[in-house]
Amino acid sequence: MRIYFIQVKAQNIKISVFLSTVYFAKIHFLTFLFKITEFLTVPAPTNVEIKSYNLNPQVSWNYPVMSQPPNFTVELKNYEEGKWIEVCTNISQKFCTIFDHVKSPDLSYWARVKATIGQKESPFADSSVFKMCKQGKIGPPKLKVQMKDHQLIIDISHPLIIVEGKEKGVVYDYYEDECSVFSYKVYWKINGSMEASPEYIQIIEEENDHRSCNETQCQLIIQGASFNSEYCVSAEGFSQNSAIWSFKFEKSEELCIKTPSGKEKANKQFHFDLILKHIQRIGEWLNKLWYLMVME
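== Interferon gamma receptor 1 ==
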């Protein structure tokens, strides 16, 4: 019985070694086959698409890991001109910024990408059609909220266009067309309760109006703000002609401010009046001193 057990165990070891040898041989064969295939053909990029954030459009794509690092060439075509132009050449990253080549957000654009490994090139892979006004995304605005004379003043700064770390301007009316002109919806809560309907800021020219916008920011003034209350404000953009343009807008974070109580307001006014009286007395004393000096 003992000898039989040893023979069975030895036989199992032989089978295990044999199976391991077959497995590793298969792995080496597949690796060899992959390298031969890679040598003969260069695969095309996949999932080529154009995206835009704050009017900064980019082409991106996917590509498998290769034994040799690939380079990529990106071409762009718009509906108006109808011809392909190179916008990125022999780049190693899997994205291409096309901000300088998109002349109008209302034009349709297509992109295509090919890979190069050594002397061999892949076929081009094409993106779907892209129109910034319909598929672009606009980030949240920045808010500043302050209380002044029973007025809640809300300053809304337009999102910035950042291209490769450099500021190019603001998104509002950058292309000077209807597509890049938009308004804001402003929401606020008073002591945790949302107001019944959002306040809309319309784009208007009058500087003395309480709903005014310019090329850098918009301002909304809420009249009759209450003392000793907490106001929480947020805002998001919206296209004025949403039937044609459909930018996707991100809502800002909620910004809260607590207004002073009536007592705090009275104390501040008292100290202000006191300082003003001291200034007036100093002025009177200086006038008397000046008069005496002149008389002498």
